[in-house]
Amino acid sequence: MNLPNKLTVARIILIPIFVILCVVPFHFGSISWLGSTIRVTSLIATLIFIIAALTDWFDGHLARKYHLITNFGKFADPMADKLLVTAAFIVLVEMQIAPAWVIILIISRELAVTGLRLLLVEAGEVMAAGQLGKIKTFTQMIAIPLMLLNNFPFAWSGIRVDLIFLYVCAFFAVWSGIDYFYRNRGIFKGSM
Questions:
Q1: pLDDT by residue (tens digit) across 107-122?
Q2: Is the pLDDT of residue 190 over 80?
Q3: What pLDDT sits at residue 178?
Q4: What is the dihedral of CA 179, 181, 187, 192, to 10 degrees?
Q5: Which residues pair with 39 in a beta bridge?
Q6: 147 alpha carbon, distance to own chain's centre
Q7: Higher pLDDT, 112 or 35
Q8: Are 165 and 142 in contact (CB under 8 A)?
Q9: Residue 157 contacts residue 92 (beta carbons within 8 Å)
Q10: Could you give the CA distance from residue 189 to residue 9 in angstroms, rounded to a whole number?
Q11: Model's pTM, two decimal places?
């Protein structure tokens, strides 16, 4: 198993640790700073989430740079990404931090686009990530840690920057999903 694949497996292993830290009521106390009160377990979970998210970038970079792309990596890397983000979003709903309807919208888009990618692969085509999808990914990777950290470091301002990023993420999730399906509508011709 090469290094990029090991990083992917490590990311998958970090997911249940992240979830347990978020939902099990450990009593390690909390930290208050700049208007935010952050549970120590939420802080640790956020660090794990950030490390896991960084391994996603790092394993892809290594795989491309050193030509270490494998079938396992092609399968496991995107699956690990979806599992990590989906787990984080579901945990945020469980913790009553994120509105369920927004999370349902984002996860539904992920499932629909993943299905479209599978159809395109079956037809011998590859759908590269578009700019709108990259903006969605960027905003969700900012929203999740901000929400886990109780809007730190913006809580003092009274502005819910965490929710702003979440709503921007939802907007780009829908827009990019529509864009992906519109640009690849030919895959459905003659099949309805």
A1: 999 999 999 999 998 8
A2: no
A3: 97
A4: -140
A5: 30
A6: 13
A7: 112
A8: yes
A9: no
A10: 38
A11: 0.93
